[in-house]
């Protein structure tokens, strides 16, 4: 009996040691975040346009959020929302440092996802979200308000020709809805004029493209439609090719 009691006592002591060790481990592995520092922006009215989309529109900077408990890595995300909505619907811009230069393209993408109207001035709220793990507690920085005007992603090229008096300033256009360098549009060539035309990137003669057999060149001759009528013109400015399909 005494031997049995000794065995039970030994197991009890071992269990207490294990539980104590677990509690110590839990304490050692607990981390918490302090109050975030102040978020600042290089401008509160970033200029956004399709022509400068690849350039930096605004740079956000913030200090590291303090962590107590253990040295846990923190993930930071820039959150953008329509002003006054309390961030009910946010768009997030990923970042890997304490300063993030955001291009016009990336910022505009977030604004369009918030259903803001292109060409119309609006205000958005911006803050930094800090967290240690996806399901852990989150800390937010102060909120900045920016005035922005989103731009349309659609770009155009021009089709001056004999059918409209060779005037690029009034020429019909081909459009690229995502500005990926591929353009389409319908042009009508009239029987009382020649069917010659050119492609210009701007409404001027500064640069113009001609060519033949589906290939464009700045040194090429006037492009020519086969006959009078309406054509769907497809132009790939990346590959410098074109096609005409009669409608």
Automatic annotation (TrEMBL):
<dbReference type="InterPro" id="IPR025970">
    <property type="entry name" value="SusE"/>
</dbReference>
<keyword id="KW-0732">Signal</keyword>
<dbReference type="Pfam" id="PF14292">
    <property type="entry name" value="SusE"/>
</dbReference>
<feature type="signal peptide">
    <location>
        <begin position="1"/>
        <end position="15"/>
    </location>
</feature>
<protein>
    <recommendedName>
        <fullName>SusE outer membrane protein domain-containing protein</fullName>
    </recommendedName>
</protein>
<feature type="domain" description="SusE outer membrane protein">
    <location>
        <begin position="24"/>
        <end position="129"/>
    </location>
</feature>
């Amino acid at each position: 009996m005494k031997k049995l009691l000794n065995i039970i006592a030994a197991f009890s002591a071992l269990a207490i040691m294990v539980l104590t060790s677990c509690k110590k481990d839990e304490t050692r592995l607990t981390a918490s975040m302090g109050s975030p520092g102040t978020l600042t922006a290089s401008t509160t009215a970033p200029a956004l346009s399709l022509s400068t989309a690849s350039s930096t529109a605004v740079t956000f900077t913030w200090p590291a959020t303090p962590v107590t408990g253990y040295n846990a890595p923190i993930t930071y995300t820039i959150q953008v929302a329509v002003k006054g909505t309390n961030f009910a619907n946010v768009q997030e811009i990923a970042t890997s440092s304490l300063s993030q230069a955001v291009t016009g393209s990336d910022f505009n993408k977030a604004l369009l996802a918030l259903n803001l109207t292109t060409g119309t001035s609006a205000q958005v709220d911006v803050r930094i979200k800090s967290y240690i793990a996806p399901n852990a507690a989150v800390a937010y920085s102060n909120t900045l308000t920016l005035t922005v005007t989103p731009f349309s992603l659609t770009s155009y090229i021009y089709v001056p020709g004999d059918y409209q008096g060779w005037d690029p300033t009034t020429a019909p256009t081909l459009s690229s809805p995502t500005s990926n360098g591929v353009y389409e549009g319908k042009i009508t060539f009239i029987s009382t004029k020649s069917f010659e035309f050119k492609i210009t990137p701007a409404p001027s003669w500064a640069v113009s493209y001609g060519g033949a057999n589906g290939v464009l060149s700045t040194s090429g001759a006037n492009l020519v439609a086969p006959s009078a009528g309406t054509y769907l013109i497809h132009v790939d400015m990346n590959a410098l090719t074109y096609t005409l399909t009669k409608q």
